[in-house]
Structures are given as structure tokens and as C-alpha cells.
Amino acid sequence: MDDISIQIEDKSYLNSADNSSKQIIKNLNLSLKANEFVCLVGHSGCGKTSLLNILSGLDLDFTGKINLGSTEPKMGYIFQSPRLLPWRTVAENISLASSCTDESLNFLLDSMGLSHEKEHYPTQLSLGMSRRVAIARAFATDPDLLLMDEPFVSLDSPTARRVRQLLVDLWLKRPHKVLFVTHDLREAITLADRLIFLESKPMTVLKEIAVTLPRGERDNELKIEQFKQQLFIDYPEIHTLL
Fold first, then answer.
1. What angle do CA 37, 146, 67 make, to 5 degrees?
2. Strand pairing partners for 10?
3. Where are the beta strands (DSSP E) in 80-237?
4. Which helix (H) or strand (E) segment is 12 a member of?
5. CA 70/CA 143 separation, integer angstroms
6. pLDDT-based confidence at 185, cuts 50/70/90?
């Protein structure tokens, strides 16, 4: 699939209380290359979710241009909450987004450690397990572009670490473009090929930085921290965004 280019000149919201307009995004330009995992890093509330809603087509009220390539890509969207249907089983929730073959469904269940929970309902799952189901459901569509909006924000650290690793393992098996929103720099370093730091009020790109730490070393907490501290030394301007 072709590279994706994103140019948003303006995204504003109307304040119904006083009929004023608040600009959320201004002159934002970024791109994604084939099979690239990109993390957007910035303050909570800076407009990252608004950007994902624009890319997914949920919000068409903006000025700019989104070039998704020569063909319409298949998209997956993982929200901050799992958004599972409580009356459907794990297997049914995953298959809901796509007509999975048994082989594909079993692959996703195995990859996300859900094989023993496939007949369970969402109310029987922990939040971490529910996150896994949401990830598997998004991958079931075999997406060209996967949008992820702080999907691990409410998990405890050990659970988040396990689910992040499952995500990366599955992505390496089925590589595609990923745009992942977070305000956690350590999480971004663990996951991304490239970091895009975003200023807010209104949101625009401050800095783009490649993550040069080999993926085989990203399970080492010390090396993640060392890479993070070196970023602060090399790019002191990003300190204010975290």
C-alpha cells in the first residue's frame, strides 16, 4: 500500500455556550510509510483523538487533505475503552468485524493468549483480557492502517507491558501501518519506529524522531530509560510535552 500523507490546516470546535470557535489542530503535516509503527506523543487533551477521528472518517468537519494512497485502505480502530458487545462471546466479538475463517480466528486467539477464553463473555474478563480482545478484533479485518487511541491507559504496569508485547508480536507477524496515540514516552519508545511529538493549543508537529533502539532490546527497562533520557538531552524542547 502507498504512503499516507496527512495535511490538516484547521480543525475547530464551536463552543455553544458563547458561540465562539476553539481551534484544536492547525497546519499539521505528517506521513506514514509502509508497515511503519508511528507513535503520536503529546499532552492528554491536545487533540490526538480528534486527529484519529478525522483519519477514520468519524469526523469530516475539518479543512485539509488526507491522502490514503491509491486505494481506500481497510482500517482498524482501537479506542480507549474496549467497546466489546456484552451479549457476544470473545470469539464472536473478534469475528464481528470480519468474516474470519476458523484458521484466522484461532491464529488471533492464540497470538493474544485468548484460546481458553473464546467462549467467555466480556463480563467474565479482566480489563487486560478485554484489551486483548479489542486488539484481536482490529487485526481480524486485516487492516492496512490501524489507529490506536491510548488503549492501555487504564491498565496496571505489568498488565500493560504484557499486552504491549502481545501487540508487537502480532504486528510483526502481520505488519501494516499503525498510528498509536499516547502521552507515555516509555510506551512510545517500546512500540514505535518513529515518534512524532505534538504541541497543543492548537496541535501541530513539534519534532519527529526515529527510534533507533533495536526491537530486541526493548524489553530491557534500563535501556528504554537510557534512550528516553538521551532524547531529553538531544531534544530538550520535548520535555514540555510530557
1. 90
2. 26, 63
3. 145-149, 177-182, 194-199, 204-210
4. strand 4-15
5. 15
6. very high
3-state secondary structure of 141: coil
Q: Is 229 in a helix, a strand, or coil?
A: helix
> CB atoms < 10 A from the CB of 36, how many?
17
Residue 188 lies in a domain: yes
How much helix, strand and coil, in percent to the nearest 5, is found in the chain? 40, 25, 35
Dmax (CA) of the chain: 55
Q: Which long-range contacts (CB under 8 A, 24 or more apart) does 55-59 make?
A: 55/6, 55/145, 55/147, 55/179, 56/147, 59/11
CB atoms within 10 A of CB 106: 14
The verdict on residue 199 lying in a domain is: yes
Give alpha helix (H) positions in 9-117.
48-56, 90-96, 102-111
Q: What is the pTM of this model?
A: 0.90
How many domains are contained in the chain?
A: 1
Structural domain including 4 reads 1-73+181-242
Would you say residue 22 lies in a domain?
yes
What is the rounded distance in angstroms from the CA atom of residue 94 to the CA atom of residue 48? 26
Quote the radius of gyration of the chain (alpha carbons, Å). 18
Type of residue found at 134: A
Residue 48 counted as domain residue: yes
Give yes or no for residue 68 having a pLDDT over 90: no
